[in-house]
Design brief:
With 341 residues, this protein is of the alpha+beta class. The chain folds into two domains: 230 residues, 3-Layer(aba) Sandwich (Aminopeptidase), CATH 3.40.630; 86 residues, Elongation Factor Tu (Ef-tu), domain 3 (Beta Barrel), CATH 2.40.30.40. Helices cover 27% and strands 26% of the residues. It is built from nine helices and 17 strands. The strands form three sheets. The chain has an eight-stranded mixed β-sheet, sandwiched between helices. It has a six-stranded antiparallel β-sheet with strand order 5-4-9-6-7-8. The chain has a three-stranded antiparallel β-sheet with strand order 10-11-17. Strand 14, helix 6 and strand 15 form a beta-alpha-beta unit. Helix 2 packs parallel to helix 4. The longest helix has 16 residues. It is elongated.
Length: 341
């Protein structure tokens, strides 16, 4: 795991539709390792490692580019900010968290989420976002000059790593972005008989908006969606290495691809409700055979997620190893037979 690069990824602002800082890091990495870069109009970026095979299939490995966050809904007379949580944010986890607001001038303003209670005297029960506000410590006029409704806000907690334990905001997407870069580094000198498309999908964790657009651009014949799996109330834990999603509310994995991958890679099964990029990759184009795999993450969706560096390394090794077991013929067989053009 490249600690310095992962720290840059984690500390970059990347709330949905404001992922440009993260995209630039991936773009630079993919550009040095791939034959071509592809983008969709929402901001997704993929590196394409091309095959010399004229009949090559395309195999996609996708990670989320964005992260959960908030949107300013009102600048109040006193200079505090009302906000709405973007999908996947539990209001009960927000109180007293530091955030950064991305202004229309592409600058970041620091703030803290508070409520109209005395923290040392009153009970601070949070029922919904209406109980909360963002305070920046600035005069009301300064706030109104810099911040407007529609501006995005993201967690401001910073990356730490000690003895293989990694903590920070949005580790779920960022360690997977790091996995895509390390995977390409690991196979940079390999020749495959299929095109390998590896990248980050914009507006993914907020309703999987970029998943369809990115899939249309890449046009994969089969795909692996990288995701983080929540350890809460589940039978997985940090240190379980490669986790394989077997069911969620929005996707049944391709049985052919699932059996092939699990036959080559040691995995631990996960049954959950939350979808992932595979939820829409698999029902885009003519139907794209897909599975989801990733690592265990504590405190998923919070300002301070936790994972293990060893799990990240295991996922990279597993993906690189698996790519050596497939070819264009096998990729074609993951689908349910020929489909008319």
């Amino acid at each position: 795991m490249d600690r310095e690069r992962l720290e840059r990824l984690c500390n970059s602002f990347g709330v949905s539709s404001g992922e440009q800082a993260v995209a630039r890091i991936l773009q630079d990495g993919y550009g040095a390792l791939c034959d071509e870069l592809k983008y969709d109009r929402l901001g997704s970026v993929f590196g394409i490692k091309k095959s010399k095979n004229p009949d090559a299939a395309t195999f996609m490995v996708a990670s989320p580019l964005d992260e959960v966050g908030l949107m300013v809904s009102e600048v109040k007379k006193d200079g505090t900010l009302a906000f709405i949580p973007l999908e996947g944010v539990a209001c009960s986890s927000l109180l007293h968290q530091r955030v950064r607001i991305l202004t229309r001038e592409d600058t970041l303003v620091d703030g803290v989420i508070g409520m109209d209670k005395k923290a040392l005297e009153d009970s601070c029960e949070v029922k919904n976002a209406d109980d909360l506000f963002i305070a920046c410590g600035l005069d009301a006029e300064e706030v109104k000059e810099q911040i407007h409704p529609g501006d995005l806000a993201g967690y401001a907690s910073t990356f730490t790593e000690h003895r293989g334990i990694v903590m920070g905001k949005s580790l779920f997407p960022r360690v997977l972005n790091e996995v895509t870069l390390e995977l390409l580094e690991k196979v940079k000198d390999e020749e495959f008989d299929f095109h390998l498309a590896v990248g980050g999908i914009a507006q993914s964790v907020i309703g999987y908006r970029g998943t369809k657009t990115a899939t249309y651009v890449v046009r994969p014949d089969a795909a692996i969606a990288l995701t983080g799996f929540d350890t809460a109330k589940r039978k997985i834990k940090l240190g379980d290495k490669v986790i394989l999603g077997l069911y969620d509310r929005q996707m049944l994995p391709s049985q052919a691809l699932l059996k092939d991958f699990s036959g080559q890679v040691e995995t631990k099964a996960y049954f959950g409700l939350m979808g992932n990029d595979g939820s829409f990759i698999h029902k885009t184009l003519k139907g794209t055979p897909a599975i989801s795999t990733g690592i265990a993450v504590d405190n998923l969706g919070s300002a301070n997620e936790i994972c293990r560096a060893g799990d990240v390394d295991s996922l990279v090794d597993a993906l690189a190893s698996y790519l050596h077991t497939i070819d264009s013929k096998k990729i074609a067989e993951f689908g349910m037979g020929d489909v008319n053009d």
